[in-house]
Amino acid sequence: MKIEQIYTGCLAQGAYYIQSGDEAVIIDPLREVDSYVEKAKENGATIKYIFETHFHADFVSGHLDLAKKTGGKIVFGPTAVTAFDCHVGQDGEVFEVGDIKIKLLHTPGHTMESSTFLLIDEQGKETAIFSGDTLFIGDVGRPDLAVKSDLTEKDLAGFLYESLRTKIMTLPDDVVVYPAHGAGSACGKHMSSETWDTLGNQKKTNYALRADMTKDEFIKEVTEGIMPPPQYFAKNAMMNKSGYESIDTVMQTGTVPLDVETFEAMANHEGALVLDTRHQNDFVKSHIPNSIFIGIDGNFAPWVGALITDLKQPIVFIADPGREEEVVTRLSRVGYDNTLGYLNGSFASWTAAGKETANLASISPEEFETHLNSSHTNILDVRKPGEYTSEHVDQAINFPLDFINSHMGEVNADNQYYLYCAGGYRSVIASSILKSRGIHDLVNVELGFKGIIETGISRTEYVCPTTIK
């Protein structure tokens, strides 16, 4: 028997390859599926099943393309309704894979179809669970994504409490827990950076699995402090239910090299958004006017999903040479399939053609400190509210990047603003969005709050009136 966790850091997502004999299954595959197909081929296996723990909201899964390419059967948990052919499993249903068995445990709460897959090895021993977003390492799934008119987040949290205690906590302590996500995902609140653990250790350390916890206590703790979900979550979940374009088609149409004139025409006359994926330092020095920066080396896909509100938005992009396919792949992971191509020759071709460029004023933390005594200094802290309330520059107003689209009316084009984040990535994203919408007098603080701390600039722990929620 072979179990392989295939972890993708930018999404904090774990997919799983399991093989016994000449049969294999994939659990929660990513959109790009060729690596799974090749892995099975290299190991002399046929992919028999594609198990989905639930309708994912934070990424577009690869179940449809994988089924078409391998003939594997897509399996969802009870109550799932799809627009494509799949097997809707029953609670307790057992699937044979080579010499092992995989048992479906219906564990509603994160969503109503959420299921955990229990692996039973060749000797009949319960060995591992693939818990999706039901149980994370250090946390459990948020219960607010499947809210309906007759189902509240407290109802879902109650279902999750029962699922954990009747289906998962009754399993042996040495069962290994393999979740769908780790730290950095928006699907939970307090996830660990560890990507697996034993169930016994989770019973000792995971707040949601306390043996003496009442249902009411669980509901209160699980539902408190949940940030609003990113706007793309519901859209990705719908794509996973109803279907989507083949990844091969998306890659073909998205990786088209565009000369400068064609690129410019698409931006100016066809409504394409210009997305700059280079390093933030390169963007600060020089960029195409009105382009949006979201660097490929940061949490690229989640930020695209949070900030670009239309999945069908036409996109043309600038990338470092050789990274064009990576950009299109990562856009497609969160459902942005309308990529029209990239600037051939990257930004160098734009400058070589003599086209207009812009830059972003940027100063060191030491320079920033010299401006703090002025009563006219406007400072925007674009970190998350939790980061801000922990510690921030005295005069700063919390203007979280996550919610920038909802708070554009709170900035004034006549004012100058200094922006900082934790390390310099998010502040450049925020600055690019503000500049594209007519707010031009912006100054980025290099190195972010990390650099600010090292200067000894006056900070405070909490200022409630200036927090934008």
Report what the structure shows.
With 469 residues, the protein is an alpha/beta fold. The protein has three domains: 2-234, Metallo-beta-lactamase, Chain A (4-Layer Sandwich), CATH 3.60.15.10; 245-352, Rhodanese-like domain (Oxidized Rhodanese, domain 1); 361-466, Oxidized Rhodanese, domain 1. The protein has 16 helices and 24 strands. The strands form five sheets. It has a six-stranded mixed sheet, with helices on one face. Strands 7-8-9-10-11-12 form a six-stranded mixed sheet. The chain has a five-stranded parallel sheet with strand order 13-17-16-14-15. A hairpin with a 5-residue loop joins strand 9 and strand 10 (126-132). Helix 3 packs across helix 5 and helix 7 crosses helix 11 (324-333). Residues 461-469 have low confidence and may be disordered.
Write the layout of secondary structure elements.
Blueprint: E1 2-8, E2 13-20, E3 23-27, H1 34-42, E4 46-51, H2 63-70, E5 73-76, E6 87-88, E7 94-97, E8 100-106, E9 115-120, E10 126-132, H3 153-168, E11 176-179, E12 197-198, H4 199-205, H5 215-223, H6 232-242, H7 247-254, E13 257-258, H8 260-269, E14 273-276, H9 280-285, E15 292-293, H10 300-307, E16 315-318, H11 324-333, E17 339-343, H12 346-352, E18 361-363, H13 365-369, E19 378-381, H14 385-390, E20 392-393, E21 397-398, E22 417-420, H15 426-436, E23 442-445, H16 448-455, E24 459-460
Parallel strand pairs: 3-4, 4-5, 5-6, 10-11, 13-17, 14-15, 14-16, 16-17, 18-23, 19-21, 19-22, 22-23
Antiparallel strand pairs: 1-2, 2-3, 7-8, 8-9, 9-10, 11-12, 20-24
